[in-house]
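In this notebook, the sequence line spells out the residues, with the fold written below as integer tokens. This is how one looks.
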Amino acid sequence: MNPFILLLSCLLFSLVKCVFVRNPDNSFSRGPLDYRNLLLDAKSASLYVGARGRLFRLWVYNINDTTENLYTERIIPVSESDLSDCVSEGSSDEECQFSSRFMAFQDKKQSIYVCSSVAMKPEIRVLDASTLKDKQASRTEIGICAPDSHVNATAVVVEWGNPDDYTTVYSGIRTGMAGENHLIYRPALSEKGKETYQSMRTIYSDTQWLNEPQFVGAFDVGEHVFFFFREIAHETVMGERTVHSRVARICKRDTGGRAVFRQVWTSFVKARLNCSISAQLPFYFDNIQAITRVDTTDDTLFYAAMSTSDTAFVTSAICAFSLKQINQLFDHGLFMETSPAGWMPRPADAVPKHRPGTCTANSQALSDSDINFARNNLLMAEPVPGGTPIMPTRDVVFSHILVDPKTEQNVIFMLDGGSHRLWKISHWRADTEWKWQLIESTGLNLQSSVRAVAILPGEFLYTATDEAISQFSLSSCQRHISCALCAVDPYCSWNAAQLSCRAREKSHSQSVGWISSWAGRGAGECVGAERTQERKAYPGDSLKLDGIEGGAWKTAGKRIIPNDRQIIDSNNNLILLNLEEKHSGVYELERNGHVVIKYRLDISGAECARPLTVEAYKSCQREWCKRADDYKTQIKEWQEAKKRSNAMTLIFDGPTLIYAGTLILLILIMLGILIHRQIVRMRNNSVRKPPAVALSSTVPKKRRLEYEAQLNNVQNLRATYKPKLTDCETIRVHEGKPYVHRMIAVEEVALEIDMLLERIDSSLCRNPNESTLAYLQRVRQRIPSLDDNLIQRIAFLQESARHRGERFDLEKLMELRSYIKQFIKKVCDDGESSLFGEMEPPSRNLVATLYDRIHPNSASSRRRRTKFGGSDGGRLLANTLREEQVPLLPLPTIASASSIGLSRSTHQTPRQSTSLIRRPDRNSGSGRRQSDSQRELLLGNSSQ
């Protein structure tokens, strides 16, 4: 790779972390087969691989070697009937193939126990470890592994300590059609096909046992089986959904209760795993991701990869849990109990003689009271301490963890399966305190997410992805550039003669010239063997000094503070930009008080004038290129500034100023005209007096102001519209509505009446600002035979067609037409003598024209309805409820009108509304009340 490109890549450390990437030493693949399970036997040098449709046995020292004795492949097909049934149930063809879920050794590693998904059904096989042939007939068994590959399940094969020492399996699993049942399960124990002991499980309907657990591991230790998982904590404050990591313990010989707890664990207890950074407010790592076990001379350690809850800033760390401390808590700790104040520790004297979690030879002999106490006391009050978290790291999730135990230390390997980054850490005990030190961090060149990992102690690490199996050496000694770094790597030794780091061998510890140490002892031997790396550069150059994580850069005894010319990237590499002669000197990287890397940097400008070497000539050329680029940049900026100056000069020349001035003057004139018109309009509005409004004395005082405001609004609108009932703006707003033609019909009929009366007698012309009621009452003075209720109803319907809070209903339009027909008949028949006097009465053609306009089935009415939105017939009546109600004005609403008796027929059904078409009886009580209530709102100018 071009060093300049590498340097630029590392400069983007804030966006992409620049990590040294290792290629696999060997790879094995038979295509993208979803390699999901790895099982390693160091004694037979075999690596067993579970994939889709196949099982493999590979040689651990070279997984790519397919020699007959070192390589075995077993193809496991699915019958056509099972495949067809599986696909018909909605699964894909790949999901229905054989796919391993869990593999474990049994019979002293002579056999392999395999639980797999076959046609989305769990199938159990026992295979010969060498040939991968079946040693038993395959069988379908629910509860061992999950057909769904996304379910976090775990299992462990236990060959000792079970009832009658049967070999069986313990599993943490989800069952049910939707995976709603969460169990820790042991299948029934049988011999020669006869069931001897029934299956055992937790109570899946009680969330105090397991509350949506995600299992990560199970281990057989002594007379117990331990399960590690995370779940929703039920002991937290009500309403909080907090995840806690747990360890649960059960006794192998547990066979459940006799009457109570039949087929249910009587020895189940669980406790929280505490992995946190101590502070006034502890920082918890509550999500366990992976777990592994290490047996030491006096204890067993469980190394767990933990992370924070699912947030935008996830942080991961490693915590080590001691088996002794776990058993101490389960055997002697306090239990949690519920109380009105919440979850509280139960007093020690309240625990019965048979303590929950205690193993007994015969669990069915336990009393019902002991079992009930155990059922209600499953959780320990105190958590299991995890010590000081190892290497808390942001923005990563340690999805896998492996440990290579050494005499003085445990070497921990943590892998982020998504980013493929691997950390190697030394963990050791100093007196009573555990310490750790980062050895190295590298990237692995993999194509997809890591599904499984395995380790051959002291030799290789293996990863399984969807595409291949990869093999990496545990030692990457060529990366260590100093003795201090090389010597503490448990897989490397420093050659003092050649000043290089090589893979460690057993003979190096006793050979002269080789320096081997470990993190706990340090690299004191490297004081005289440390190599100072010489670096030479020229003014203007950029340089990268390789470092390691966890160290501090210094020069001239002072710590380097990052700035725009001295950058420290995410891998602690020092990047120097635009070097000058003053940057010459010694640069050291210290870690744990020791200098682990030392550089001597020489920056000489003497050769720049007359370069004597190729490197000096290239440096001079780069410096000249930089200056040339700077000159070009300055020339370009000057040219752009000159163009902008010329453009401004062109803008402000003579003709341009004249055109711009003329345009601005025209705009100002137009604005002046508009402002003048607005001022005139405002003056006219200010001098216009609103019509007087008279209300009946029976109107309540509390509602009087409200009615006056509504009536004034009606009068103001009437003064603006004058005789018109609708205007263009109103029609535009309601354009396309099915009822818009009703508004037009009311307007035409009303105008025809006004024109008719004006032609009959000019004194009957409608006055400006005169309400409909006042106008018709003036006509009634000339024709006393006109019914007062008829006049009031016509005025009310006409006004509500014009000023309404909702649409003008079809029933009201029909009612208005009926009343207008009666009015015309009265005017043309009964009013001839009193109205016309000596004048010639109007022709019958005019009356016929009026009648034709208001009749619903006339030809002109049909043409008008077609033009304005359809028919007034049965279709509109049936669709009345579906018509959109768009209020025109928030003036007297239907609610306010109905409160004073003005819209009694608004919500009448079609059957009820037909009664309104009949001419109201002058002497009826209801007619009088209707007249009184309408008069209160429609009085208007009639009081004058």
In short: The mean pLDDT is 78. The chain is about 30% helix and 25% strand.
